[in-house]
Amino acid sequence: MASGVAATAQSEAQSQTTQNGEHKDDGGFKLKFCTVCASNQNRSMEAHLRLSQANYPVISFGTGSLVRLPGPTITQPNVYQFNKTSYDSMYKELEAKDPRLYRANGLLNMLGRNRNVKWGPERWQDWQVGMPRVSHATDKGSEGTEGGLVDVVITCEERCWDAVIDDLLNRGSPLNRPVHVINVDIRDNHEEASIGGSGILDLANSLNAAAREEREKVGAAAWDAGGAASRSSFDERVPEIIGEWQERWPHLPATWTLAWF
């Protein structure tokens, strides 16, 4: 469970939302985020929704070879392909199979949320960084991500963090553009995903406040170009920001590295 301080932060974040669940937008600079878990279903999608409601540009992915959801037994999972199966079709299939089971274990509720965020689960390894995402205009949080680039990648499990780092190394940094890769370790259940989503939003707010300060110092044009030199002052602040955040969210262990697109 979240600590008292974390719960307070969560309550404060929720109190700043409008009636439709979205946070009021101050119209200022926003970092671009990417959230990642194994199947792009639970943890990454909860965080994707929270960040989009706070008006952050955000995309999300999974790192697994296939999308796996619980089935009637541990040896009978429901398995789907990334990029080819929509959340809506998964919802309808499971509802037809056993509506009582899949309502009881929360899968229908989760898929119902997901299909209102974007079309279907995407695989990180298939993402072409820097390529326009013109077919994702209806995704929540899509505004600002059309160019196919983000400033911060937040994974929700250590093996996903490892997969992202390995993939970035294999790509060879063709754009020479820095990206912060942060793992926030979240247990893969609906309750912990909700707590983790609040923690990730709090971290995003802290990172964005620092980025806005540093962008004003170096100038918007230099910052927005994405070069390492213009962002070095922000990069140097990130470990301290994460350390302060970790004190507020001690039950969400975090790991960080600076990587490159």
From TrEMBL:
<dbReference type="InterPro" id="IPR006811">
    <property type="entry name" value="RNA_pol_II_suA"/>
</dbReference>
<comment type="subunit">
    <text>Component of the cleavage and polyadenylation factor (CPF) complex.</text>
</comment>
<dbReference type="GO" id="GO:0008420">
    <property type="term" value="F:RNA polymerase II CTD heptapeptide repeat phosphatase activity"/>
</dbReference>
<comment type="function">
    <text>Component of the cleavage and polyadenylation factor (CPF) complex, which plays a key role in polyadenylation-dependent pre-mRNA 3'-end formation and cooperates with cleavage factors including the CFIA complex and NAB4/CFIB. SSU72 is required for 3'-end formation of snoRNAs.</text>
</comment>
<feature type="region of interest" description="Disordered">
    <location>
        <begin position="1"/>
        <end position="24"/>
    </location>
</feature>
<keyword id="KW-0539">Nucleus</keyword>
<keyword id="KW-0378">Hydrolase</keyword>
<keyword id="KW-0507">mRNA processing</keyword>
<dbReference type="GO" id="GO:0005847">
    <property type="term" value="C:mRNA cleavage and polyadenylation specificity factor complex"/>
</dbReference>
<dbReference type="Pfam" id="PF04722">
    <property type="entry name" value="Ssu72"/>
</dbReference>
<comment type="similarity">
    <text>Belongs to the SSU72 phosphatase family.</text>
</comment>
<dbReference type="GO" id="GO:0031124">
    <property type="term" value="P:mRNA 3'-end processing"/>
</dbReference>
<keyword id="KW-0904">Protein phosphatase</keyword>
<protein>
    <recommendedName>
        <fullName>RNA polymerase II subunit A C-terminal domain phosphatase SSU72</fullName>
        <ecNumber>3.1.3.16</ecNumber>
    </recommendedName>
</protein>
<feature type="compositionally biased region" description="Low complexity">
    <location>
        <begin position="1"/>
        <end position="19"/>
    </location>
</feature>
